[in-house]
Write a structure and sequence with these properties.
This protein is of the alpha+beta class and about 350 residues long. It has 2 domains: about 90 residues; about 190 residues, BirA Bifunctional Protein, domain 2. It is built from 11 helices and 10 strands. The strands form 2 sheets. Strands 1-5-6-10-9-8-7 form a 7-stranded mixed β-sheet, sandwiched between helices. A 3-stranded antiparallel β-sheet has the order 2-4-3. Helix 1 packs parallel to helix 4, helix 2 runs antiparallel to helix 4 and helix 5 packs across helix 10. The protein binds adenosine-5'-[phenylalaninyl-phosphate]. The site of adenosine-5'-[phenylalaninyl-phosphate] has 25 residues, from strand 6, strand 8, strand 9, strand 10 and helix 10.
């Protein structure tokens, strides 16, 4: 082979390689191209090797052409590699593109039921006066719901609480059971387990077999209060409840105490607040009296104290039981208690 032939072969090879390189569209074909021209067994490498066959004194021109071709292809390869890598990255980014300007899905958030909120507020108000929070069973023994509260069987006072009895009796002796009609059964349960002084509030569900109306539900929530110690008087009861009303409803709300009868207190009282809707003028919600009854209360009856082993000559106490839904009605101006448990989100979302 002459140096001229070799030089022209090299130029041709370079031109062919360059045109193929320009037509390449992806990185895998580029790698094939590199192997086929610049690889150890590639066309250019082979051609350069064959220059050894030309006598040394004639080899110069072909040698220069060879170096030129090698350099040109290597540079072109580097540039094309960069181009194709950038194109591949751009295509990948385009494919995985995330449009962060699209509006997101709203996160659904719940809120506390108005009864839960008011129970927490009421318990917190009594906690500032040193009362502890205790809870008790909703399925209760007749003994705690009635008998230990000085309401023996066949006593007409049982008619005050329309009772939902449950089918089975208690496992330890077959005693009759019921859904508690009030939270008062916890009075005896707590005193049986504690020595005075006692100062507790008991939040919980109660059930009564009665017709519903704007202020009555067949299931509702009460908070019971009980304080027993030496020297507790009716003045302590009134002072505690006035202070409670001020914490929850502010200075302006009016409060009224009247005598009431509960077999487990003596004397007994009820506390009412002026109606939030008519401001005392009389309306459907307050049954045209101007007042809404929120709790029953009184001095713990000596028979209840003796029944749990307390000496009623040494200890006295007061107790109260208040309706939480009625309290929330006063606080938020809710006109019908049945809204609390109708599961209507339009109502519940307002709290
Ligand atoms: C009682 O349940 C007594 N255990 C309260 C008590 C405790 C008196 C300690 C003395 C000492 P009464 O049945 O009045 O009392 O209910 C108390 C409060 O529960 C009422 O003032 C009212 O706010 C609420 N309440 C009663 N019945 C219903 C009802 N059907 N729906 C909604 N709230 C009710």
């Amino acid at each position: 082979m002459t140096t001229k032939d070799a030089t022209s072969n090299l130029r041709e090879l370079q031109a062919q390689a360059m045109s193929e390189l320009g037509a390449l569209r992806d990185l895998s074909h580029l790698e094939e191209w590199r192997v086929s021209y610049l690889g150890r067994k590639g066309k250019l490498t082979q051609t350069l090797r064959s220059l050894g066959e030309i006598p040394p004194e004639q080899r110069r021109e072909a040698g220069m052409a060879g170096n030129e071709a090698k350099q040109a292809l290597e540079i072109a390869y580097g540039l094309r590699l960069k181009e194709l890598e950038e194109a591949a990255l751009a295509a990948k980014l385009q494919q995985e593109r995330l449009d962060i300007t699209l509006p997101g899905w709203p996160v659904l958030s719940g809120s506390l039921h108005p009864t839960t909120s008011i129970v927490r507020e009421v318990c917190a108000a009594f906690a500032t006066m040193g009362f502890q929070v205790v809870e008790g069973p909703e399925v209760e023994l007749d003994g705690y719901n009635f008998e230990k509260l000085n309401i023996p069987k066949d006593h007409p006072a049982r008619d005050m609480w329309n009772t939902l009895w449950v089918d089975h009796t208690d496992a330890n002796g077959g005693r009759p059971m019921l859904l508690r009609t009030h939270t008062s059964p916890m009075q005896a349960r707590i005193m049986e387990k504690t020595k005075p002084p006692v100062r507790v509030v008991v939040p919980g569900k109660c059930y009564r077999y009665e017709a519903t109306d704007a202020t009555h539900e067949w299931h509702f929530t009460q908070v019971e209060g009980l304080a027993v110690d030496k020297g507790i008087t009716l003045a302590d009861l009134k002072g505690t409840l006035y202070e409670f009303a001020r914490i929850l409803f502010g200075q302006d709300r009016k409060v009224r105490f009247r005598c009431d009868y509960f077999p487990f207190v003596e004397p007994g009282a009820e506390m009412s607040m002026d109606c939030f809707l008519c401001e005392g003028k009389g309306c459907r919600v307050c049954k045209h009296t101007g007042w809404i009854e929120i709790l029953g209360a009184g001095m713990v009856h000596p028979k209840v104290l003796e029944g749990v082993g307390y000496d009623s000559n040494t200890y006295t106490g007061f107790a109260f039981g208040m309706g939480m839904e009625r309290m929330a009605m006063l606080k938020h101006g809710i006109e019908d208690i049945r809204l609390f448990y109708a599961n209507d989100l339009r109502f519940l979302k307002q709290f």
